[in-house]
# Entry
Amino acid sequence: QVQLEESGGGLVETGGSLRLSCERSGRTLDNSAMGWFRQSPGKEREFVAVMRWSSGTPYYSDSVKGRFTISRDKGKRTIYLQMNSLKPEDSAVYYCAARERVITSTITTKETYTFWGQGTRVTVAS
# Structure
């Protein structure tokens, strides 16, 4: 009853920018968080950025803080990830994720997220 669909990935040169989108559909979520995780070949999926849906309070990994910005459009039920100053190490498949009944202590923990999109690939040329 909940679907997430990402878009906006692509190929970009080092220092460039991309904006990812994730539209949520289906039933409403209670006290939810939505955001982004990424996975590179040979690595575990890792936290990038998430936010509390109602308040918009953002959380960022240290590796992207100051370069990426997460935002939302409540009317469109869509979150965005503006990625600037991209580096080759940002190359990954980026997954949108959502969860309900969020608490701050686990808001960046991927294992607590129960809804996932199909992923969109970001490649930063070196």
Notes: Residues 40 and 92 are 5 Å apart (CA to CA). The chain has a mean pLDDT of 97. DSSP finds no helices and eleven strands in the chain. The radius of gyration is 14 Å.
